[in-house]
Amino acid sequence: MFCVDEKSQIQALDRSQPVLPMMPGIPRRVTHDHVRAGTTTLFTALGVVTGKMVGSLNRRHRAEEFKEFVIKLDQETPAGLDVHLVLDNYATHKTPPSRPGW
Question: pTM (2 decimals)?
Fold first, then answer.
């Protein structure tokens, strides 16, 4: 049994200048601005019994990516065991491509 959730629109940010390290008497220095490098989506599953975490980063947040994540989760589960998912009511979980055989 896995509890599954996703975090969408994680911003991939980087500082516009290199971070200057701390030195004796001088604090670490970072710039105030950053460069946007797009967004990413994180799908995660927590094994309720084992505590095992399975995750996947994707560029998009669609039913196709969710389906690929469920397939990955099934492949990482020992053969002969059924996979049971606890999901929220998010739209990507309810589309026909992400519900084969449900």
Answer: 0.66
